[in-house]
Structures are given as structure tokens and as C-alpha cells.
Amino acid sequence: MVRSCEQGIPAWVFVGTLLFHSVTVRGAALKQEVALDNGATVLNHSMSLVQRMETLLTMGNGSDVTLRVQTINTDEVKVIQAHSLVLSLQSDVFEELLLTRNNSAVVLRETPDCAAVFDKFVRYLYCGDISVRLDQAISLHKLASKYHVWGLQQGLTQYMTLHLSSDSPTGHVVGWYNYALQIGDMALRDSCLQYLSWNLSSVLQSGEWGSISEDLLLSLLQRSDLILQTELELYEALEAWISQNQPVSATVESALRAVRYGMIPPQHLFRLQKQSALMLKYYESIRDLLYLAFQFHSASPIQLAKYFDVNCSIFTPRNYLSSSWGSPWVINNPTRDDRSFSFQTQLGPSGHDSSKRVTWNALFSPRWLPLSARSTYTELGAMQPTRTDGGRPRIIVTPATSSPDFAGVSFQKTVIVMAKQQGKVVVRHVYNFHQSTEEAGDFLVDADLQRRASEYLIDSSLFLHIVIKPLYHTLLVARK
């Protein structure tokens, strides 16, 4: 029988007695939580138990195992007096280590970051709760994975997913993305990638931008759902990243060829050709793309489609926040009634259309009921109202007038929903549709707009940004 270090009492007896005594602690206020059907009442002293378990770990009373945590490549050793029963109950890895040990000490070798939080990790095994800082999440996740503490591992994954927008001195999302990629956690990887894509403008202005890897950079550049001010902003940020990281020429060429030069106004392209050291150095690598961009800016899309495939990335807009592409829309007290507003955008990104404007009308209905879910006429033939308490929020965006200039072009509408997380305004959701958010199917489906503290509201208002994206299709191509 394994005995404790104090008074010769078996460790399992000591811990078991503690568990029993904590439930019968004298003078504790009885808490009636649940009255059961049979008249029994549950008395809850779990907090007292947690406190006693923490004291057990801190004082080392009845300890029957010593954990010697060695920091790899250093002489630093952290000693923790523990209890085999607790460790074995929480971790099958610890159970195996304890069964095969030769003496009362177990030597554990950990990296410096994991060794620094090991006592916090062990405390979780005793108490079931843990305080986490942004810079500790990966280290604790590594320990939870290594020792098969699955509840903690899942909790830390959720913590990282919910704290992507938190402020940190050097940024943390890129590090979490790289870690998720390393361990194969696709859900966390995708959450990080989505956050970076949807909040790219703020990322470009942060110190975190310079730390992203080449693979992550190229992955971001391929995406059409990036949310940023303009394509020019992306090019200038790319130039800064290349200057800081000095990648090989093949990486630079791949990155430059992922820029959508057709979305940059011609006057800025001319300036870059003369003033951008990066473009001057790699001009021959992107000459064909610049030539195509200038052709795009000099002719109507229909004329261009007669000779080129316009359904390629260089002609596909991302989600640009500048006024040429859309407008913000703040809806105060969004559940009150229908709202509408009008705004203007450019007809298209082509320099040929730069002087042409389109006026758009937007309608927001907080409780719209689809036709399929309502009766249009009563028995007397009177039309029923189209908005009821049982409906869902909906936005419709349509042009104020039709125009021949719309020929060959369809307009994708994107509604960006903002939210405040950890004190920072970030993108919560993005919805794409042609005319109505009904097409998206899930527009604000989980939003409780009636609740003032709803995570979809900022100061009781719904913060939206509508982006209009002209799209050109291969059906216009008519080569001979």
C-alpha cells in the first residue's frame, strides 16, 4: 500500500477522508438548490471542497508523489508535492506514469513555456478551475493534450476561439493559427483564419502583420472575403511585409501575382509603377497583370469580355469598406419598426465607369415573415400585413433605377454585421446575397435583438456595413 509522507496515513485514505469531511463541514450554511420529486433536498458544499483541495495541494499534506518538473535545456527544476489518487483520476497518462514509477518521485521534462505554467495546470487537476492569460493559452493547451486532460483541452480551445479579438501587446491570433495548424485542430485554425480575413484592416495596422508566415500570407491573398479599406491598402501592407521578412523571390512573385490590380484605380497604379521600389524590382513578374488591369480600366466590361475571360480573380472585388463600394448603416433600436436609407456607389471598379454612380435603396425589417410562412388573404379577401411578431430580420437592397449600364453585370450585396468583443469593435458575421438576405437563409438567425445586452448590438444599435460588388460572368465572353 502506498503511504503518505506524513503520519503514515495512506494517501487514498487522507484524500477520501477529506472528500467526506468537506461534505459534513461544521457550521457551513446549507444551500437548498433543488427540491426533488421525492421530497429530498440537495445540499451543496462544492465550493468548500474546492477550497480544501486547493489547501491540500498547497500544503502538501498526505502527499505520496513528488513531481519534479525539469525545464528542457536548463538546470531549473520545479518540485510539486501531489497525490497519486487525484492525478490518476484526472489523467490516464499520469495513471500510467504512477504505476510504472520506481520511487516516490516522477520526473517530467517540459519546454520552458509549459514548465512556467505547470503548477497552474496541476492546480486545475485539484480544483477544476483555472485562470488563463492570452500568452498562456497555448502552453496550457499543450499540457492538457500531453496528459489527456480533455475537458481542459476543449475549454482552452473554446477560450481561444472567444478571445481572438482581445488586445495583446504583440498580437496572438497568428500564433494561435500556427499552433492550430501544427496540432491539426481545423476548427481553431479556421476560426483564426476567418478572424484575420474579416478584420484585416486592423491586422494590417498591427505589429502582428509582420509576424505572419509565408503560407498564411499567400492563403490570405487568395481569399475574396477579405474585409479591408481598398486593394491599395493590401498592396502597401504586402510591400511592408516583404521589406520586413525578406522572403525568397519565388514567394514575392507569388504574393504580387495574388494582388487584384484591376481593383486599384489607374492613377494609383501609375504612381506605384514609378514610386514603389517593390514593383520596380519585380515589374517583369507582374507585367502581364498590370497590362490587363490597364485594359480593364480603359474599356467597358462588355467590350473587355469579348476578348478576355472576365471571370477571374483580378476582376473580382473583395469586401472593400471605402465609400466607393458601399456605406455603413447604424440602426438604433432595431426591433422597433422598418427602416430604410439610400446610398451611392460607383457603377464598377473599371476606370471606364469611375464617373458613373448607382443609387441604392436599402430596407431593414426586424420581423419579416416569408411568403411561404404566412397567409396572404383572409377569408374576406383583405390582405394580411407582411410583418408579424413571428418573423425574422431581413434586408433588401435594390437599385433606385435601372440602367443600360447594368448589362452584363450582376451586383452581389454583402452585409457586414459588427459587434463589440472584449471592448473592440470587430466583424461578427458576413452575409452575401443578390437582392434580399432571405437568400442567405440564416441572416441574424441567432440574434436576440430584443435584449439590450445582445452580442449583436453596440449600445442598443445594430452596426452594419453594406458593400456592393459588381461581378462579371463568363457568359459575356464571345471570342471569335
Could you please describe the fold and organization of this structure?
Keywords: Signal. Residues 63-134 form the BTB domain. Residues 1-27 form the signal peptide. This is BTB domain containing 17. InterPro entries: BACK (IPR011705), BTB-POZ/Galectin-3-binding (IPR051481), BTB/POZ_dom (IPR000210), SKP1/BTB/POZ_sf (IPR011333), TRAF_BTBD17 (IPR056184). The structure is a single chain. It contains 18 helices and 14 strands. The relative contact order is 0.07. The chain starts with 10 loop residues before the first helix and ends in an 8-residue tail after the last strand. α1 (11-23) runs antiparallel to α2 (46-59), α7 (137-146) packs antiparallel against α8 (150-162) and α9 packs antiparallel against α10. Among the domains are: 48-159, Potassium Channel Kv1.1, Chain A, CATH 3.30.710; 319-368 and 391-472, Apoptosis, Tumor Necrosis Factor Receptor Associated Protein 2, Chain A (Sandwich). It is 37% helix and 21% strand. It has a 4-stranded antiparallel beta sheet with strand order 8-14-12-13, with no helix packed on it. Strands 4-3-5 form a 3-stranded mixed beta sheet. A 3-stranded antiparallel beta sheet has the order 9-10-11, with no helix packed on it. The protein has 480 residues and is an alpha+beta fold.
